[in-house]
Write a structure and sequence with these properties.
The complex is a heterodimer of chains A (251) and B (323). By secondary structure, chain A is α/β, with parallel strands linked by helices. Chain A has two domains: 200 residues, 3-Layer(aba) Sandwich (Rossmann fold), CATH 3.40.50.620; 34 residues, no CATH class. Chain A has six helices and 15 strands. Chain B folds into two domains: 180 residues, Rossmann fold; 121 residues, 3-Layer(aba) Sandwich (Rossmann fold). Chain B is elongated and about 60 Å long. In chain B, the strands form four sheets. Chain B has a seven-stranded parallel beta sheet. Helix content of chain B is 27%, strand content 28%. In chain B, helix 3 packs across helix 4 and helix 5 packs parallel to helix 9. Chain B contains nine helices and 18 strands. Classes of the chains: A alpha/beta (251), B alpha/beta (323). Chains A and B meet through helix 3, helix 4, strand 9, strand 10 and strand 11 of A and helix 3, helix 4, strand 7, strand 9 and strand 10 of B. Strand 14 of chain A pairs antiparallel with strand 10 of chain B, so a sheet runs across the interface. The structure holds flavin-adenine dinucleotide (FAD). The site of flavin-adenine dinucleotide (FAD) has 27 residues of chain B, from helix 6, helix 7 and helix 9.
Chain lengths: 251, 323
């Protein structure tokens, strides 16, 4: 089985982003990049699927510049077999999806894992767009996956519950927490990753009808109104209810 | 010019997110055409969408489309948009609309913005939209320059209001293709949650400060009085106290309710990522230095085990007084 795992590299979750070039670009100075948390779930599930399906191989694909290679090695260290880096800035989801679709058409695919979203632009659409390009099914926010032959049974998160989805391979899915526990790389994995193949490819020309104009930081909030409960809980509670009903008008 | 709005539905009725998408679409100052797909027997429900701003409502009740298949819905909606010439297509960024929108965009080679949380603008003929990025830590503005443009709207961004009157509902027939049904919804497993987190108007969340699963009844009782949904921090979920479906934050749900009450939650950056755009944030925490107070609008500094029961009782009395 040809298993593809799409990995994006995103700022560490504690990053406080700032922007440069007239606020059009993230200031990468001092930012630590990590494998997108949802892609870690994908990797872990892909490794288990490969190990349960003899003759399978996992190919990691990233659209990113050379500085993403450190994180690609991490993906190899947790068990992927080979990696492809498409040498381009990931301009937006439509751009990334077209690049990935172009490459996987060439190398072949049975199941393509993406994350439910990446934690930088929070689009939640890349996997769906890849599926559309390849004209295969997509299932979003998947919390469990069973594959037998060319059939997959999944559960996906929906408002107020879960939906059971049956799909046929080849297909794309967007992983959500629950699909597998992320794997922490061990020394042996890290050593092996150094010699696993990492191929660099140049991007195809892609224009998209979606342009980022500017980033802004949210306006800082004014100081809140806080009531101390020590000594008189009832008093603090009454003050809060007064504020919520008269000022905030939320109750 | 007109805007096409897809109406989320489930179990024969429209979802709250359907009306929100219509309310958002009215902000383009163009004719609003709403489209529902699937089994909705009560035509009055569809007709009433006119009250919220749609000038026309179309319904597709094709047998094959009675169960959800995002690819099939996308093909049909893209075709309708082409036939009607609606250049802007609006969805809710829900688990329904949100997974149809990208596929429609791909079919129409359209501009695409998912999960917008601000109103759109048309400036010098350009379509300008925005959303929070970096998990709520920044905002970004985009211009959509396709012949067609597709937008999905984060739940709770716009409040529907009555601006019109009921309209006629027209049925349309479409053809479907077999290859679009390679992934289909077979069944729905309900959680015991009475109100879904992402759609809730008020959310009460509990964290590690509650000390154990047995104390979450405090959160549930407070939520009950407020008609709120129950959420949790990752610490509470990872400890096995609450299901992951209730986790709010970076690796959980992103929510944007009118009021978010955080009880015994420190306000780690990854938690704020999921609820920072809530309109009013209330914190109950015994540590005045907890980061949650940096983003809270209101709060009580105190022990949750004393404050929450007192608050629940006082709110009961307040609700009785105003009803
Ligand atoms: C990659 C990554 C992703 C993450 N994703 C998420 C996510 O999606 N959601 C999320 O929530 N977290 C997430 N986290 C975890 C996050 O960093 C915090 O660890 C977590 O939010 C802490 O949960 P908490 O606030 O309940 O617990 P704590 O940080 O332990 O805070 C407990 C709070 O309760 C207060 N308290 C204690 N006793 C009482 C009492 N009796 N009365 C009142 N207050 C009391 C304390 O003062 C404290 O502020 C993520 C972390 C990483 C690294």
């Amino acid at each position: 089985m040809k298993i593809i795992v799409c990995v994006s590299c995103v700022p560490d979750t504690t990053t406080k982003p700032t922007f440069i070039e007239n606020n059009t670009k993230l200031n990468e100075q001092g930012v630590q990049f990590i494998v997108n948390p949802y892609d870690e779930y994908s990797l872990a599930r892909a490794v288990a699927l490969r190990d349960a399906t003899p003759g399978s191989k996992i190919t990691v694909i990233t659209v990113g510049e050379a500085n993403t290679e450190q994180n690609i090695r991490k993906a190899l260290a947790v068990g992927a077999d080979e990696a492809i880096r498409i040498n381009a800035k990931p301009i937006n989801a439509q751009y990334v999806a077209k690049q990935i679709a172009h490459v996987v058409k060439e190398i072949g695919f049975d199941i393509i894992f993406t994350g439910k979203e990446s934690t930088d632009y929070n689009g939640g659409i890349t996997g769906n767009l890849i599926a559309a390009e390849l004209d295969i099914p997509y299932t979003h926010s998947v919390t469990s996956l069973e594959v037998s032959g060319t059939e997959a049974k999944m559960e996906r998160e929906i408002e107020g519950g879960k939906e059971v989805v049956r799909a046929s391979l080849p297909m794309v899915l967007g992983s959500q927490k629950g699909i597998a526990e992320p794997i922490i790389p061990n020394m042996m994995g890290i050593a092996k990753a150094r010699t696993k193949p990492l191929t660099v490819r140049e991007p195809i020309p892609v224009e998209t009808p979606t342009q980022l104009i500017i980033h802004e930081l949210p306006k800082p909030k004014g100081a809140g109104k806080f009531f101390k409960a020590d000594g008189n809980v009832q008093e603090a509670v009454n003050q809060l209810i007064e504020a919520l009903s008269k000022e905030a008008k939320t109750i | 010019m007109s805007v096409l709005v897809y109406l989320d539905s489930a179990n024969g009725a429209l979802k709250k997110t359907a009306y929100e998408a219509v309310a958002y679409a009215t902000h383009f100052g163009q004719e609003v055409i709403a489209l529902a797909i699937g089994n909705i027997e009560d035509k009055q429900i569809l007709s009433n969408v006119g009250k919220y701003g749609a000038q026309k409502v179309y319904h597709i009740s094709e047998e094959k489309l009675k169960t959800f298949a995002n690819a099939a819905y996308a093909s049909v909606i893209a075709q309708v948009a082409k036939d009607l010439g609606t250049k802007i297509i609006v969805f809710s960024a829900s688990s329904i609309g949100g997974v149809i929108a990208p596929r429609v965009a791909a079919k129409l080679n359209a501009g695409l913005l998912s999960d917008t949380n601000v109103l759109p603008k048309i400036e010098n003929g350009q379509l300008i939209v925005g959303k929070t990025v970096f998990s709520g830590k920044a905002n970004a503005t985009f211009s959509l320059t396709g012949e067609f443009n597709v937008i999905s709207v984060r739940p709770n961004t716009v409040k529907p209001s009555e601006v019109g009157s009921p309209v006629n509902v027209e049925s349309i027939n479409v053809s479907t293709q077999e290859s679009d049904f390679r992934a289909i919804a077979e069944a729905i497993l309900k959680t015991s949650d009475k109100i879904s987190l992402t759609e809730a108007d008020i959310i009460v969340s509990g964290g590690r400060g509650l000390k154990g699963p047995e104390n979450f009844y405090l959160i549930e009782e407070l939520a009950e009085v407020l008609g709120a949904a129950v959420g949790a921090s990752r610490a509470a979920v990872d400890a096995g106290w609450r299901p992951h479906s209730q986790q709010v934050g970076q690796t959980g749900k992103t929510v944007s309710p009118t009021m978010y009450i955080a009880v015994g939650i420190s306000g780690a950056i990854q938690h704020l990522a999921g609820m920072g755009t809530s309109k009013v944030i209330v914190a109950i925490n015994k540590d005045p230095e907890a980061p949650i107070f940096k983003v809270a609008d209101y709060g009580i500094i105190g022990d949750a085990f004393e404050v929450v029961p007192a608050l629940t009782n006082a709110l009961k009395a307040y609700k009785q007084k105003i009803s």
